TrEMBL record:
It comes from Pedobacter alpinus. It is found in: Cytoplasm. InterPro entries: Rossmann-like_a/b/a_fold, Universal_stress_UspA, UspA. This is Universal stress protein. The keyword Cytoplasm applies. The keyword Iron does not apply. It comes from the Bacteria. Residues 7-152 form the UspA domain. Pfam families: Usp.
């Protein structure tokens, strides 16, 4: 890992969850304080199982994989617009919509584009739930070449 004196480029990894909203809030706030540029990344994972056959008797048309990927891309664009309007309406933000394994894509993008920090939210799972589902945030932090800020979600009471 590089020893950086300043953080000039911050990559915020998001999905459509309250955890990512919290991470985006921290990431944009931090970028303002550090006078850093911000980029958003959303990873579309390939669907494991899709219904590619329809039922013509019921009027179901078939949906093929490219249609699902198009829908995911449109949702990611809407997510980016919402986040930018909420946290940085007058800021220029780079956007990356990638496809593949979430951890690998985030880590590779950060390396290739020389980001100085990654901000990512976490579900704060523990025990058996963490063992079964794993943690993208902890995996990114283990494999990244730059610092990773993992932002936990704290429920408001």
């Amino acid at each position: 890992m590089k020893n950086l004196q300043t953080f000039e480029r911050i990559l915020i990894a998001v999905d459509d969850s309250k955890y990512a909203q919290c991470a985006a809030d921290y990431g944009f706030s931090l970028a303002k304080k550090l006078n850093a540029s911000v980029s958003l990344v959303h990873i579309n994972e390939y669907p494991i199982a899709t219904n590619i056959t329809g039922d013509p008797i019921l009027g179901d048309s078939s949906m093929v994989l490219p249609n699902i990927m198009d829908i995911q891309n449109e949702q990611a664009k809407k997510l980016f617009e919402t986040l930018k309007n909420t946290f940085a309406p007058e800021t220029i933000v780079e956007e990356y919509i990638l496809e593949g394994d979430t951890t690998n894509e985030i880590v590779n993008l950060a390396k290739e584009q020389h980001f100085s920090m990654i901000v990512i939210g976490t579900h704060s799972r523990t025990g058996f739930d963490h063992f079964i589902s794993g943690s993208v945030a902890s995996s990114v932090s283990r494999h990244a070449d730059c610092p990773v800020l993992i932002v936990p979600f704290i429920e408001s009471k």
